[in-house]
Specification:
single chain, about 40% helix, alpha/beta, 6 helices, globular
Length: about 200
C-alpha cells in the first residue's frame, strides 16, 4: 500500500514536471507607447493618403537638423503642402526629450524611405549635434517604439533597417559611421523584448 502510494506520488510529480516543460509561461505585454498624434494634412507632398497594406520593415532615420524638436520637424513636413519644396515625411518623429509625435497612420505610406515607402514604417529621430548620436531619452523611446511596432507587425530585428540600407544615404548618420553602435541597437532591441515582452496592446 505504502509502495503504491509512493509510486503514485512519483508519477504525479513526473507528470507535472513534464507538462511544465512544454507549457511556456505567458509573455509579458508590450503596451503602445505614449503618442502625441498630430497627423499631417492629406496632401501630395507629405501625406498622400495611400494605403500601406503590408508592413515588412521598420526604417530608422535621423533628422539631420541638430537641436530641432519633434514638433518642429512634424510642422516642416506639414508645411510642404504649401512650400512644395520636396516630398518628405515620416510616420513618427522622436524628440530630444523622448516625446513621440505620430505624423501619419501606420495604415498609410510616408515619403521617407524611397523604394521601401510601400512596405515600411518610418521613424525619424531628433539629434542634439552634428555627430548624429541619439541622446538617452531619444534612444529609450526608439527602443520602446521599435519593439512595439515589431510586435504589432510580427517583425524580427533583421526587419529593422537604416535608411542607408535602402539607398546608401548617410542616414541615420551615427549608425552608418558606427556599425558597432547599430549592431548594439539590435542587441538592445532583443534585450528590451526579453525584458518587457512582445505581445501588443493598443
Amino acid at each position: 500500500m505504502a509502495v503504491a502510494a509512493v509510486m503514485l506520488l512519483v508519477l504525479l510529480v513526473y507528470t507535472m514536471v513534464s507538462v511544465a516543460h512544454y507549457v511556456k509561461a505567458p509573455k509579458k505585454v508590450l503596451t503602445q507607447p505614449d503618442l502625441d498624434v498630430e497627423l499631417l494634412d492629406i496632401n501630395e507632398y507629405s501625406r498622400p493618403g495611400i494605403a500601406l497594406n503590408q508592413v515588412n520593415g521598420i526604417v530608422i532615420h535621423y533628422t539631420a537638423n541638430p537641436g530641432t524638436t519633434a514638433m518642429q520637424n512634424r510642422n516642416y513636413f506639414n508645411g510642404l503642402k504649401d512650400s512644395h519644396e520636396t516630398k518628405a515625411s515620416s510616420h513618427f518623429v522622436i524628440g530630444l526629450e523622448g516625446e513621440i509625435v505620430q505624423c501619419i497612420p501606420t495604415s498609410e505610406i510616408s515619403y521617407a524611405s524611397n523604394d521601401r515607402n510601400a512596405d515600411t514604417v518610418s521613424i525619424e529621430c531628433c539629434i542634439e549635434d552634428d555627430t548624429g548620436k541619439f541622446n538617452d531619452d531619444t534612444y529609450e523611446s526608439l527602443l520602446e517604439l521599435t519593439t512595439f511596432l515589431m510586435g504589432k507587425f510580427d517583425l524580427d530585428t533583421e526587419d529593422v533597417i537604416r535608411h542607408y540600407d535602402v539607398t546608401g544615404k548617410n542616414c541615420p548618420k551615427y549608425y552608418v559611421e558606427h556599425q558597432d553602435a547599430w549592431e548594439q541597437f539590435k542587441v538592445d532591441l532583443e534585450d528590451y523584448i526579453e525584458k518587457y515582452g512582445e505581445k501588443v496592446v493598443e
